[in-house]
Amino acid sequence: QQQVKQSPQSLIVQKGGISIINCAYENTAFDYFPWYQQFPGKGPALLIAIRPDVSEKKEGRFTISFNKSAKQFSLHIMDSQPGDSATYFCAASTGSASKIIFGSGTRLSIRP
Amino acid sequence: DAGITQSPRHKVTETGTPVTLRCHQTENHRYMYWYRQDPGHGLRLIHYSYGVKDTDKGEVSDGYSVSRSKTEDFLLTLESATSSQTSVYFCAISEGTGGGYGYTFGSGTRLTVV
Q: Can you tell me the mean pLDDT for A49-72?
């Protein structure tokens, strides 16, 4: 049962462009939506997170957009750089849960 | 990754043999998790622990067992390794539950079952 659906599976963006990764969830009890970034040979690392009481959160070039009514959220990477090339995972959890549910991941490649 | 180490980093084992992977943390976090990562499946939870000797199953727990006798150590055992268990295994730790508490992941163990 996939509770968090992520797309696309892979993405190629030119340097300086905008990278957009989308996720959709089913469980309306989810109240925490983090994004993780993973470089080859490393474990995932927390990048940015949002709660459903706000529609957008920005940290530097990374922005999460959240649409509660549509049960969708997305990661936007502005001015994408080759160093952003990595696998990105969206995720979701509830306040009472002991675990985070991850999407299937998006492999992002930024072409110079 | 600071505060969490996994061992071994790489292992090749034969079908039918038992294998134990170790996760060690120095952060004194209560919650520890074992995930496996496979192409197209993302990260899937195997087992997790919410305290010493307190563990529970995740979504892909068949063929795996865990133990946590100390706060700092969380062991994952493949009772009789199969080729379908070839994967990259990640341990994660968390200070609290659910919202607001992100995970810190280890660097992973690449396991190959031949």
A: 94
Measured CA distances, A12 to A5, A64, B72 (Å): 19, 19, 40
A49 touches chain B (CB under 8 A): yes
**CA A103, B76, A38, B26 torsion-angle sign:** positive
Cα–Cα nearest to B42, from A110, A6, A31 = A6
State how many domains chain A has. Answer: 1
Is the pLDDT at B76 greater than 90, yes or no? yes
The CATH class for the domain spanning B4-97 reads mainly beta
Task: Pick the closest to residue B64 from B94, B42, B44 (CA basis).
Answer: B44
CA angle A45, A27, B56 (to 5 degrees): 65
pLDDT (average), residues B97-104: 74
For chain A, say whether B43 makes contact (Cβ under 8 Å). Answer: yes
| The pLDDT value given to residue A94 | 80
Query: For the domain that residue A66 is a member of, what is the CATH number?
Result: 2.60.40.10
Find chain A residues with C-beta within 8 A of B1's C-beta: 42-43
pLDDT for B98 beyond 90: no
Q: Terminal CA-to-CA distance of chain A, rounded, Å?
A: 38
